Amino acid sequence: MTDGKHEVLVIGGGVAGLVLALEVADHRRVTLLRPTSDDQGASRWAQGGIAAVLSPQDDIEAHVADTLVAGDGLCDEPAVRFTVEQGPSAIEWLLSLGVPFTPDASADAGYPYHLTREGGHGARRIIHADDATGRAVVDTLKQHVESHPNIQLCGELTAIGLIADGEGLCRGARCLDAGGRLQELLAEDTVLATGGASGLYRHTTSPQPASGEGMMMAAELGAELMNLEFQQFHPTCLFDPEGPAFLISEAVRGEGGLLLNAAGERFMPAVDPRAELAPRDIVARAIDAQMQRTASDHVYLDIRHLGEAAIRHHFPTIHAHCARRGLDIVRQPIPVVPAAHYSCGGITTDLGGATTVPRLYAIGEVACTGLHGANRMASNSLLECLVYARSCAQRLRAAKSPSTAEPIPAPWGRKPVPMGEIEQIREAMRQLMSARVAIVRTDHGLDEAAKGLDQLHQRLAPMMSDAMASVPLANLWHALRLARLTVTCARARRESRGLHFNPDCPVHGDATPHPSRIRLQALETI
């Protein structure tokens, strides 16, 4: 079925998608595809907060400088400056909507809300809602979205691909409803806010992580992707092989948490002068090295010295969650392990969210703006969602003349692919990525990953010629091709920089580093 009544189609209902919908809806009608699974996505699980220059003791230049350092020489400085400069007004906008940020009632407070500090930041500039900032922001935005008369929420449709026309414009999305029926939503403008690609790995910090579906949907239309090799692993995910993923916020270290190895020894001061507050790539590699050295499957994050009152005050969500899983963090150190967390690469966009495909935009983690470079600094992610959703909305407020070219037909066939086959290939892909393309990569390991992923592709590709559309199959097809592109980028970067660490080329390369730009057509040459 084809439905061509949509002005602005937004795919994804995390912070970026919700903000854009609200900022556009007073000017144009918005259709927001927001499956219920979005409530388990990265935005809602963001604990730490939002980085912005809010304190009188802080300034724009300091935030810019900290971000450039964390990005390890690969940030786009104009994008960094644009993002940081827009931060304070973005926070004021959230406050105007009623987001319940944690107040600071202390006598010497220079700002009405409590500001914490996280890794890479030289000042306290993280505004937060206790230790559940993502949930507070998403819930507030949802209330406003649900009450706006110009926003149509669609929770029963899942996008599996984009629609192009003969002139190369994006014309909307192909979706499946709850019954598996294919529906085409034609739109004047389409915005991807689908999240990152941490689902390419076995262990992640999100219960239902994205696997780069939006990135590959854009790539199928010819969009350029950038910096795919820079996958951030959060240093501290709760280690519990029997339970679901749960992030232990960086704010825990910001408030004084100490990392200990299996012998109970603190190790970060010997690695970096910033110790536990070093950027995430450094901390994650240090933890990985300790695990390898001691043959342990985790390390410990210790906050017992903060005292019960401070722990309950600053980290009520983490305290309660750990308690439900049998861990008293007031009296026991928290077992933690690095886990795939955030994609610094994605769809190449400009400062207004435009991709290289006309009428297609991307915001949030699915996009690569140049802000994060080779490593994202803590709490700059929600800031990026806010700033670029609002800048993209400004560009979308004026309607454009619709395309008259015919949409290109859907490629799907009629033969179902067994779920068992889909799950086997997905698990094999995740095993390869986790073993060979994670915190530390080697030339040999990347070669093995490329060979293994190629074999999986050869196994799946023949089925796709007449495959019946399904959400699991479409997601796997997107994920497997993105994994191959990621390995291609990692093999091509002959240096170690930020999140990409390869002991076979351990130092920085060119004095002027370049982003990794790639398109789907690159797979045809492999």
From TrEMBL:
E.C. designation(s): 1.4.3.16
One GO term in the molecular function aspect is: L-aspartate oxidase activity
Which cofactors does it use?
FAD
Q: Fumarate reductase/succinate dehydrogenase flavoprotein-like C-terminal domain: which residues? A: 426-510
Q: Reaction catalysed by this chain?
A: L-aspartate + O2 = iminosuccinate + H2O2
Gene3D superfamilies in alphabetical order: FAD/NAD(P)-binding domain, Fumarate reductase/succinate dehydrogenase flavoprotein-like, C-terminal domain, Succinate dehydrogenase/fumarate reductase flavoprotein, catalytic domain
Q: What does this protein do?
A: Catalyzes the oxidation of L-aspartate to iminoaspartate.
Recorded protein name is L-aspartate oxidase
Q: Which species does this protein come from?
A: Halomonas fontilapidosi
